[in-house]
Design goal:
The structure is a single chain. With about 375 residues, this protein is an alpha/beta fold. The chain has two domains: about 15-245, Aspartate Aminotransferase, domain 2; about 250-375, Aspartate Aminotransferase, domain 1. It contains 14 helices and eleven strands. It has helices at about 15-20, 30-40, 55-65, 80-90, 105-115, 135-140, 195-200, 235-240, 240-245, 250-265, 295-305, 320-325, 335-345, 355-370; strands at about 45-50, 70-75, 90-95, 120, 145-150, 160, 160-165, 170-175, 185-190, 290, 345-350. The strands form three sheets. It has a seven-stranded mixed beta sheet with strand order 1-9-8-5-4-2-3, sandwiched between helices. A two-stranded antiparallel ribbon has the order 6-7. A two-stranded antiparallel sheet has the order 10-11.
Length: about 375
């Protein structure tokens, strides 16, 4: 069996020992330490840990006071949570198309979607392929529009010789179970702007002080509620897993790049496969998506699954999902590249424990599928 993903956590290491010896299990000194590490890594004033990428974005959108009919532009082909957070808060999702070669958000499409109601743009660094946020920032200069970078698929330090998040108002990471840095569930916001205290409060039920800050210097500091909030803070238990992974991230990125290039070397021989083009020299390596003709895509998935090679689809176009297709049907025709890629793509196994022999087996089975026309035998 070749699993789609294997985490890289050391099962012999006690990540929780220091946390369990402390009095705080929820957000406390461990979270505070990790926030400082992340902020320093990306040269940002502020970092806020959250219990998920999704709740991080909800806290941001609430902090910038998104209102009904405020428009948020997102790529049509990405994970559905990008659209869900806008819908949940009563905003309007505007879908922009992706580029045909990189599968990243098309800046040209974005510029055609901007109106007086545009509140924010949410570019996605998809698969680890880094979007050119600096170019987007330059194109919308002097417009009062927030840029919220979706960094769920990357943790690389640099973007075009600038630290990640340099060109945006907010950048949000995910520490979900399958991410390169993981604590099972979790997220983080990095920013230099003045919304930090508001976001931190909103993500902790609107409280003005977290629990471990209420008795600083042995003085009771009463908390208040200045904003309506919800429960989105990360616990010290989860945060305990993050520090060692962050410290070795750049070193392991070299190995991820090697595995990625091995895939490219072997699969480039198969003419039926398309591999998205990298958008810059300094990319991250999170997923390995390929594209095949939509006629064969689902049959290839079945062929690989039958041979215990576990693959998935990242992602169908959001506009082809029932809820959004019904509500935003007039936007479907404006995103042809997204619709096409959503029907063509599948993601192959990609993780640090993937071996050369496993890559060769995956290549062999894909080649057999096409050369022996296995797709003709699958109903």
């Amino acid at each position: 069996m070749i699993p789609f993903f294997k985490h890289d956590l050391n099962n012999k290491k006690n990540y929780l020992k220091k946390t369990l010896n402390n009095i705080y299990l929820t957000s406390g000194p461990v979270c505070s330490k990790v926030e400082n590490i992340i902020a320093k890594r990306f040269n940002k004033k502020n970092c806020i840990l959250t219990n998920s990428w999704t709740n991080a974005v909800i806290a941001i959108l609430k902090s910038i006071n998104i209102k009904q009919q405020d428009e948020i532009i997102i790529p049509a082909c990405t994970f559905v949570s990008c659209a869900n957070v806008v819908e949940m808060l009563g905003g309007k999702v505007i879908f922009a198309d992706i580029e045909k070669d990189t599968k990243l958000l098309s800046i040209k499409s974005v510029l055609n979607k901007i109106t007086k109601k545009t509140k924010a743009i949410m570019p996605v660094h998809l698969y680890g392929n880094i979007f050119n946020t600096g170019q987007l920032k330059k194109k919308i200069n002097n417009k009062n529009i927030f840029i919220i970078e979706d960094c769920a698929h990357i943790f690389s330090k640099y973007q075009n010789n600038k630290t990640l998040g340099y060109y945006s108002d907010f950048a949000i990471f995910s520490f979900y179970a399958t991410k390169n840095v993981t604590c099972g569930e979790g997220g983080a916001i990095i920013t230099n702007n003045n919304y930090t205290d508001k976001i931190r409060s909103i993500s902790n039920n609107g409280l003005s002080k977290p629990a471990f800050k209420r008795f600083e210097s042995k003085k009771y500091i009463p908390w208040d509620v200045n904003d309506v909030g919800f429960k989105a803070n990360l616990s010290d238990i989860n945060a305990s897993f993050l520090e060692p992974q962050i410290k070795k991230y750049d070193r392991l990125l070299v190995k991820r790049k090697r595995i990625y290039n091995t895939y490219v070397k072997h699969l480039s021989e198969i003419k039926e496969i398309f591999i998205p083009k990298s958008n810059s020299n300094n990319r991250d390596y999170h997923l390995f998506p390929i594209g095949v003709n939509k006629i064969y895509r689902n049959k290839l998935i079945e062929h690989l699954l039958e041979r215990d090679i576990f693959v998935t689809v990242n992602y169908r176009s959001i506009l082809n999902l029932y809820y959004y297709k019904k509500k935003y049907k007039l936007q479907v025709r404006n995103c042809p590249n997204s619709n096409e890629w959503g029907q063509e793509t599948l993601s192959l196994p990609f993780h640090l424990k993937l071996t050369l022999n496993e890559v060769k087996k995956i290549k062999k089975e894909i080649k057999i599928f096409f050369t022996k026309k296995i797709y003709l035998t699958i109903k």
